[in-house]
Design a protein that fits this description.
With 135 residues, the protein is mainly α. It has one domain. The chain is 71% helix and 0% strand. It contains 4 helices and no strands. The longest helix has 35 residues.
Length: 135
């Protein structure tokens, strides 16, 4: 999400493009990761308190998510860089401007993260439903 981190030129100071780039480049963008972690903890902790044996399912879900995250990012970046916005013949454009190379991979990762949170919620919900059915 910091498209100008390796570019020779950067947007002017005090523009939204520069501010957003600097946020993600300097580490302030880790707030997004922190929000995702807190959301996952909010989904997982209540069900783990009710039934600690779900820990293995959550660990496996997280491992699968991590692998899928790498795959989805790689595929989204390949589609983005070869189909949507192909690189110039020299494979590097030091003057490229814009967040256009970040949108498709970012949306793909966001969709995967939302799916992961819904899956974690479902794992905890399945346990509650099974316990209610078995009485």
């Amino acid at each position: 999400m910091a498209p100008w981190d390796t570019a020779l030129t950067r947007p002017e100071l005090d523009t939204w493009q520069r501010s957003l780039n600097d946020l993600f480049e300097t580490g302030g963008g880790q707030i997004v990761a922190l929000a995702l972690m807190l959301a996952s903890m909010g989904v997982v902790l209540p069900s783990l308190r009710r039934r600690p044996s779900l820990a293995i399912q959550y660990v496996m879900s997280n491992a699968i998510f991590w692998c899928l995250l790498l795959i989805v990012f790689y595929v989204a970046a390949m589609i983005n860089n070869n189909v949507l916005y192909p690189y110039p013949p020299v494979l590097y454009d030091p003057n490229y401007q814009g967040f256009h190379r970040s949108v498709f991979p970012g949306i793909s990762i966001l969709a995967l993260c939302i799916g992961w949170l819904l899956w974690l919620r479902r794992v905890g919900g399945l346990e509650v439903n099974l316990r209610l059915q078995t009485g």
